[in-house]
Amino acid sequence: MEVSIGDTQILKGISLTVNIGEVHAIMGPNGSGKSTLANVLAGRPEYKITGGEVLYKGQNLLAMAPETRAREGVFLAFQYPVELPGVRSWQFLKTSVDAMRQHRGEKELRVREFDRLLEAAMETVEIEGDLVRRSVNEGYSGGEKKRNEILQLALLKPTLALLDETDSGLDIDALRIVSNGVNQYKSSERAIVMVTHYQRILNYITPDYVHVLVDGNIAMSGGRELALELEEKGYEWLREEVPA
């Protein structure tokens, strides 16, 4: 897949297969295209796909509107979660869950049914009850915003989770909580693509594969040990591996 924004090409020929049940970590230096990859898959409209295709469950993902992708089970945890003033978190979460259920031909949840699910998910990510009574992310700390993203993940249970630098700005305790939520979401029926700069989150969430993006290309792929090598050596030595 090739992707541009304006006149600037960002992804220059990414070829990647993610199977159900797998965890893939996408690493690389700033500006390498990691977040672009996640955002394109989720349907951010400002990016232009100039080549290639994306197949999701045998369907053309790029032909789907962003809201259709979400209902089909593609979830993006934002690097910088946005605030939604005036939109109560409880209502936002229930509406999201009901939209997914309706898309599958299921009935909306009753309030008490949803509250039971919500309470269990909140316990997983250690979110206090008063947060879901406030506007989405408004007044949340950085760690609370990231935990709120994983709360959504726990409730929606998407087929493909795209985690865009979910570890960014987290202290050790928040990183542990977020990682625990992701690990509880992991399943043989779901897949995770996790964008990160550092290997520290991989101490908590073990990837099946690690891919390193450099200048819009996958310079190298490997297992968990590749992340450890990057932690020791940095990224510069991989530039010679990038296709000309």
UniProtKB/TrEMBL annotation:
Residues annotated as transmembrane: none
Pfam families from the UniProt entry: ABC_tran (PF00005)
Superkingdom: Eukaryota
UniProt xrefs under SMART domains: AAA
SUPFAM superfamilies the record matches: P-loop containing nucleoside triphosphate hydrolases (SSF52540)
UniProt-recorded Gene Ontology molecular function terms: ATP binding; ATP hydrolysis activity
Record key words, sorted: ATP-binding, Nucleotide-binding
PROSITE patterns named among the record's database cross-references: ABC_TRANSPORTER_1, ABC_TRANSPORTER_2
Domain ABC transporter: 1-240
Protein name stated in the entry: Probable ATP-dependent transporter slr0075
Originating species: Geodia barretti
